[in-house]
Specification:
Blueprint lengths: L12 E5 L6 E7 L9 H11 L8 H4 L3 E6 L1 E2 L2 E2 L4 E6 L20 H8 L5 H7 L4 H15 L5 E9 L2 E2 L3 H14 L5 E8 L15 H10 L4 E6 L10 H4 L3 E3 L7 E3 L7 E2 L2 E2 L4 E7 L10 E4 L4 E4 L10 H24 L4 H8 L20
Helix pairs in contact: 1-5, 5-9, 7-9
């Protein structure tokens, strides 16, 4: 019998289960320290934010994401054991809903049926649905509370919807209204930022240790996200090094007395946080479920058809940003747990004091031999 793989530099491990129209979603988080007082109402508030946003569909009006803790807490405090949460689904008609006949371009429908060699599209879409991100949002809200005592704050902002700056509210909302009338959908771009991260989270010994790679993969796992960049990532290929890289300067109040004059790296260098804000941008495509339907093929009859319509949103950039926050919280919290170690919040608080924020590099050994 082989031993279970250790999480390595990830620090936390998690998983989700459940279908879009099944009885519930399940979220499990392993590796949480003992002694974290969880505010369940704050988790519920985070789940509610995921349903907000202009362009949301009918499900946002009735889905409640009823939260139940199944394991991992004693009187509201983590015990260091796996935390298991349940989110009830308001629409549980998975056995009664009709089977789709024509796959939707851009969704997992066709790729899934080709993989399983079955015409059962619903068996593909139920788990591929963005409904699953509610479970990850709950996990992220737990991790947000883990990060707070260490001064780490994660936030997000929408940058543009349908190419229109988010600040131009009336313009992009008018475009969303028109897309709804036309039976169309829209995409956009959002940004997620983590402030207060100590330097040295992540790693570079192995490719999977790199925090930038994990963050990009994590945000790319949000359904419909097609591009992710960190800092000035999109401009990097067209910017000379003298303009791109962030000069290192002496800075009072900076970590170990050192700071930067810019943050084009987005807070990560060599797979490690460098003490600046971690900044990640993601672009989400128009969702593939269109009321008017795109060209497709009826798999029962093997005739050209319009893609089958399922209840859907018009634009999901705002809720996707909320999910992005949750995933940032998950990755940063995992890296923090790995960096500090400790099985309790008390141990983690003690160990973060030893990272050297108020020390001077002049007092550190000049060779690794001095680290014994």
């Amino acid at each position: 019998m082989s031993a279970r793989p250790t999480p390595g530099l990830q620090g936390l491990t998690w998983s989700t289960a459940g279908e879009s129209h099944g009885p519930c979603l399940i979220a499990q988080l392993d590796g949480l320290p003992a002694g974290l007082h969880l505010d369940l109402d704050a988790i519920r508030a985070g789940l509610k934010r995921r349903w907000e946003g202009y362009g949301r569909g009918l499900r946002a009006g009735f889905e409640k994401d009823e939260l139940v803790i199944l394991a991992g807490l004693k009187r509201g405090v983590t015990m260091g054991t796996p935390l298991v949460m349940q989110l009830g689904n308001a629409d549980t008609r998975i056995d009664e809903l009709p089977d789709l006949k024509a796959p939707r371009p851009g969704h997992a429908d066709l790729a899934g049926v080709l993989r399983l060699k079955t015409r059962d599209i619903r068996a593909q879409l139920e788990r591929a649905s963005a409904r699953e991100t509610a479970a990850r949002t709950a996990l992220g809200e737990v991790c947000r509370q883990l990060l707070a005592p260490f001064g780490i704050v994660v936030s997000s902002q929408v940058l543009q919807i349908a190419g229109i700056p988010f600040a131009a509210t009336e313009k992009w909302q008018a475009v969303v209204d028109q897309a709804r009338k036309d039976g169309d959908s829209l995409g956009g771009t959002f940004q997620v930022t983590a402030q207060g991260c100590p330097p040295g989270l992540g790693g570079f010994f192995q490719a999977v240790d790199r925090l930038d790679a994990r963050l990009m993969a994590s945000l790319a796992s949000i359904p419909a996200v097609k591009a992710v960049s960190i800092g000035w990532g999109e401009q990097a290929g067209a910017t000379p090094g003298s303009a791109y890289h962030d000069p290192i300067v002496l800075q009072e109040g900076g970590w170990a007395g050192i700071g930067r004059t810019s943050n084009h790296a987005g807070g990560i260098e060599g797979g490690l946080t460098n003490g600046q804000d971690v900044v990640v941008q993601a672009s989400i495509k128009p969702i593939p479920t269109l009321r008017k339907g795109l060209e497709s093929v009826n798999l029962d009859e093997m005739k050209e058809s319009r893609a089958t319509y399922e209840r859907s949103d018009v634009a999901v950039v705002e809720p996707a940003a909320v999910v992005g926050e949750a995933l940032m919280c998950l990755e940063i919290a995992g890296s923090l747990c790995a960096r500090l170690g400790g099985v309790s919040m008390r141990e983690m608080r003690q160990r973060i004091q030893e990272l050297g924020k108020n020390e001077s590099p002049q007092d550190w050994p000049s060779d690794v031999a001095g680290l014994d």
